[in-house]
Write a structure and sequence with these properties.
GO cellular component, one term: plasma membrane
Radius of gyration: 18 Å
Helix content: 25-40%
Strand content: 25-35%
EC number: 7.4.2.1
Number of strands: 10
Shape: globular
Subcellular location: Cell membrane
Number of helices: 9
Domain ABC transporter: 7-241
CATH superfamily: P-loop containing nucleotide triphosphate hydrolases
Structural class: alpha/beta
CATH topology: Rossmann fold
Distance between the termini: 34 Å
Pfam family, one: ABC_tran
Length: 247
């Protein structure tokens, strides 16, 4: 059990029609922990990630952030979304705004910062992800890897308590994947609480405190990377690893 829990899911269930996509999920993520969620397609990984900040409503159970139950709607939900940053596989940047404007917008609208203050913070964060020189450009002028790093800077600009990553490298060309993972590794070293849904097993091994393996909407294993990759307990995990680690 994590010493100081930041994200807590208790008996969380979710259906899409007849399909039971999350089955009695119990998961605790401690402050400063990096939890990597892996598993076969359709195992509920992305739904779990999206449920944590209520992009996906749940059917039953409860989710707490920093000891508080998640609000279902309204201003409290907007506040929550500012506290839990989300990085998607498809960047979701505004095409008609510059890189700098993309990173500053949420700070001005949600955090109520003055433009000059927001822009100063944005430039600091763009520098942190190696993109300060790209601030005046538009997303279309950037590579996919650069756009994803802008999306990470934008999420960080809200000063979140935790960051959720939903397959952040799956839309990228292979040579761009590492530049994004390196930024994520640095965040992990800096103590950012992260929940990362990914197929990148190298990242899971090197940066995760815990690996959560999901299958059929349930958490099958929740262990240290060392234990999981060297001696998985379940047949589902053994089968999954044998398929991905031999390619």
């Amino acid at each position: 059990m994590a010493v100081d829990p930041l994200i807590e899911l208790r008996d969380v269930n979710k259906h899409f029609g007849e399909l039971h996509v999350l089955r009695d999920i119990n998961l605790t993520v401690g402050k400063g922990e990096v939890v990597v969620v892996i598993g076969p397609s359709g195992s509920g990984k992305s739904t779990l990630c999206r449920a944590i900040n209520r992009l996906e409503p749940i059917g039953s159970g409860e989710i707490k952030l920093d000891g508080r139950l998640l609000a279902r709607e309204g201003k409290d939900l907007a506040r929550l979304r500012a506290e839990v940053g989300m990085v998607f596989q498809s960047f979701n940047l505004f095409a008609h705004k510059t890189v700098l404007q993309n990173v500053s917008l949420g700070q001005i609208k949600v955090r109520g910062r003055k433009k000059a203050e927001a822009d100063r913070r944005s430039l600091e964060l763009l520098d942190r992800v190696g993109l300060a020189s790209q601030a005046p450009k538009y997303p279309a002028q950037l590579s996919g890897g650069q756009q994803q790093r802008v999306a990470i800077a934008r999420a960080l600009a809200m000063d979140p308590k935790a960051l959720l990553f939903d397959e952040p490298t799956s839309a990228l060309d292979p040579e761009m994947i590492n530049e994004v993972l390196e930024v994520m590794r640095q965040l992990a070293r800096d103590g950012m609480t992260m929940v990362v849904v990914t197929h990148e097993m190298g990242f899971a091994r090197s940066a995760a405190n815990r690996v959560v393996f999901m299958a059929d909407g349930a958490v099958v294993e929740d262990r240290s990377p060392e234990e999981f990759f060297t001696a998985p307990r379940s047949d589902r995990a053994k089968d999954f690893l044998s398929k991905i680690l031999t390619h």
